[in-house]
Amino acid sequence: MRDATLIFNPRAGRRRNVAQLMPALIRTLEDHGVRAAAIETSGPGTSGSGTAGALAARAAASGSEMVFACGGDGTVHEVLQGLAGTSAALGIIPIGTANALARNLKLSQDPLHAAVQQANATSVRIAVGQVSYRTPPSHRCEESSRRYFTVMAGAGPDGALVYSLLTRHKSALGRIAYYAHAARLFFTRPFPPFRVSYRLQGSDSWHEEMAVSVMAARIDDLGGIFSRLTPGCSLRAGTLRLFLMRPPAALSLPSWFVFGQLGIHRANPWLRTLDVEEFRCAPGDVATATHAQVDGEWIGTLPFEVCLVPDALSIVTPSETDRSKTLLSR
Q: Any residues with CB less than 8 A from the CB of 281 and at least 6 apart, and which?
């Protein structure tokens, strides 16, 4: 039998019975030839041996072939921190609100079905993004100055949105209220330009531009109203796809949404889409701080640097048959 560890967030999404779901998940995996054990994470905003990242690293070191992140995108992100650079494969049991990475992998949103899809699935090695940043001295949960990501990293409006929600739970806010809050923030708050330096694919030269927003994405569907904003992105790509919005924000931010929803990003004069090896963001000439985020987690303000780490993670991928069943069941 293969060995697996389930790391679960008891406060994921809108569910209040995550812990009660674990025995059924363990039985399901064991019925499909996987020996599993469940461990509860102390959750985001904490530090020490009980974090999902620390638990994942310990599980990998102890011989678990698969480590399942049972929760939302935040739980997946934390588990990733402990698995990057190991041989253990990342599996996902979607129990969150958006479940962006799980949806892009064509995993069922039903936790038990998702477990079946991955029990005997193969894994592939992929590159992951890496962000190096200055640790906010007052932030309670960031101790290191490096984070890995599989979904996105950005600065500007998306960072400001995540920062504004630090004291609020996204799932408790509700999807409609969350979208309304995001729209109000994006279209009423000024976003001064900052400096972006980047090195294009296959080039040794660096280029610099001013931007009001940047986002490097690894998946092409962020979900909901953001689902069409990052076309052409892929977990298997060997470069970072960088979306750079030129100033002024009053024009570039609304155009990003409108052109994106219409599927005509190439016609947007305020958007630059670049395939880069790495990029850096630094504050502009205005004293206003620019917030940054990684996989929906706030990491502080600029500056930061982003690159791609090749062959850094094994990730469980369901078979084409299981993917088709999931699509047909939606």
A: 155, 194, 195, 196, 197, 211, 214, 290, 292, 302, 303, 304, 305, 306
Over range 314-322, report the average pLDDT.
78
Please tell me whether residues 225 and 283 are part of one structural domain: yes
**Position with higher pLDDT, 172 vs 255:** 255
- Is residue 309 exposed (0-12), middle (13-18) or buried (19+ Cβ within 10 Å)? middle
Are residues 94 and 107 in contact, defined by beta-carbon separation less than 8 angstroms? yes
pLDDT averaged over every residue in the chain? 89
Domain that holds residue 50: 2-126+312-329
Tell me the pLDDT band of 175, cut-offs 50, 70 and 90.
confident
Clarify whether residues 180 and 270 are in a common domain.
Answer: yes
What is the structure's pLDDT at 102? Answer: 97
Instruction: Report whether 270 contacts 246 (CB < 8 A).
Output: yes
What is the Cα–Cα distance from 111 to 94, expressed in whole angstroms?
A: 6
Rounded to the nearest 10 degrees, what angle do helices 157-164 and 175-188 cross at?
A: 130
Domain count of the fold of the chain: 2
Please answer whether residues 159 and 212 qualify as being in contact, where contact means their C-beta atoms are separated by less than 8 angstroms. no
**pLDDT band at residue 326 using 50, 70 and 90 as cut-offs:** very low
pTM comes to 0.90
